[in-house]
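G., the chain you wanted modeled:
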Amino acid sequence: MAKMRSKSDLPTKLCVVCGRPFTWRKKWARDWVNVKYCSDRCRTVGAPPPTPRPG
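Predicted structure as tokens:
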């Protein structure tokens, strides 16, 4: 039987829309490298517009 992992041992990322940290989920196991959003809501909103540069 496999040993259980603590949630704090799982990898985390920051959501590109809201900036909140989110933790690895089993359903993302094959595609973790490409996961950018913490939820469906952030995914539908999309990436924030680029900030204008002064000058």
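Strands lie at 12-14, 21-23.

Shout if anything looks off.
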